[in-house]
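Bug: token stream looks shifted between consecutive jobs. Job 1:
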Amino acid sequence: IKCPVAGFFGVHDSNPPPEDVRKVEAELKRLGVETDFHIYEDTGHAFMDSDQKRYVAASAKDAWTRILAFLERHLAEQPVAAT
């Protein structure tokens, strides 16, 4: 993997469990891949799906803010050098 990777997870998620999230993040960082991983307290799987009972508004709002900032940082048009 050569591109930055973002991931947003709940501490009560079992797929993937927080231990696995931390291992993946550590390995990506070891390989020099920029990461933006966040594990939310009092949150489980599918916490961003507002149609689910598992929806956690505060976690989802924060995750969306982080996702949009991540995309802005990494997908914004870069100036092209004059040739």
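Job 2, same session, no restart:
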Amino acid sequence: MHNRFDTQKSLVLNYLKKDNSITPIEALNKFGAFRLAAIIFDLKKEGYDIATETIKNGGKRYANYKIRI
């Protein structure tokens, strides 16, 4: 049986495979995933080539992830 994290990981992976990029706020809004960095870490550990871009917006910084296929 899959836990919620595995389901969110599958949703994020499928979203990325459709040539989308994703930020933590998008992951939260679309999939209820609070821990996008952990999901990306696991996907990278599984061999997926995922690029991380740091976005600076005013005084805030956040990551934007995109899979390289």
